Amino acid sequence: MAKTFRPYEPNQLLLLPPSLQDWVPDGHLARFVSDMIDTLDLSEIEDAYTEERGHPPYHPCMMVKLLMYGYCTGTYSSRRIAAKLRDSVAFRVLAAGNEPDFRTISDFRMRHGAALTRMFDQVLQVCREAGLVKLGRVAIDGTKIKANASKHKAMSYGRMKEKETAIQREVREMLKRAEKIDREEDRLYGPDRRGDELPAELATREGRLKKIREAKAALEAEARRKAEAEGKDPRDAKPPNKAQRNFTDPESKIQKTSDGFIQGYNAQVAVDDLFQVIVAQHVTPNALDVNEIEPVITSIETTLEAKPEAVLADAGYWSEANVRTLEDKRIEAFIATRKHKHGDVTSAPRGRLPKTMTVRERMERKLRTRRGREAYARRKVLAEPVIGQIKQARGFRQFLRRGVDKVSEEWALVCTAHNLLKLHTAMRLV
Questions:
Q1: Whole-model pTM?
Q2: Cα dihedral 302/306/310/312 (nearest 10)
């Protein structure tokens, strides 16, 4: 009995022009991203193109769609996005057959970084209008993300002083030797060289010495600024010997994680209780979280012109000043005063609140109440899953760019993509 299969003709020519939109099904993420970007105000990006010379640039709307779909699907590298334009149907549909190369994509992201950052506010407003943001309880958390730099390219201030002295000595010795053999070098270098160039080894040491001196000066300037802010004489300020500076990304810092120490940044998110929408985000090189609550609240108030009813945060954010800041804004605080062991259960307090209790004691007492335990328990199902979705599900574990401003733009794109995905999920549930 002859077997029958459906027709399969890989080389068959199409007799009718295909529709790009038919290549992806209804409800596909690529369709959603395309429709969403079409509703956003991209005039800030479009207005940047004021001159017409050479070949016209790619349409900004298309470039934004490629970037946002890339971030939504865990494709962050401009080279990987360019490769997807050749072998991914969804990317080809979004580009409508265009194929910008990786350099064009990278340059677009760098040139319009600030405008792309402000897209976070637009998407957040859409989330709010769609009913995904309530601003009841908001959980704040931070995560350490690797910088585009190695921790082995950092050096402490004390080590810098030692290396500077050692390299200066090596340079002096090499210059003395170089003076003795100038004529021999002229003969070896040939007629196309002057013969008085620095030897490669000496040039390398001179370059290292310059970098070390620049890093030392930056640490010393930072120490003076800190002393001035504390009301001390900046002329007497010196960095501690353990103060470090990275040569590849000087603005990144050593960050402690559960897996050890990394060279990186502290990325912050504030997550709304209703649908896990990120309502505020920023990046700081500071390893500690304690100073990050006020910037988060300010961002929420600026973008949404409202404030949350309550803020949930772990012990890293604890300080009496933070509690007072929230109370002054009439925001209820649920901030752990210390780390709690898993399964640690304390009895609920009884009786009236003693008037002599400190701010810390009042917070500890509140978190032991049934209402306090229920409220604080929401923190683990809000901010922590969002960070897990970003780092684990979508694989964002290292910044591609360098410097606080650039990685802040990158983090804003990551958070914008997260909110777009929340919108997409919500629309599918309707």
A1: 0.80
A2: -30
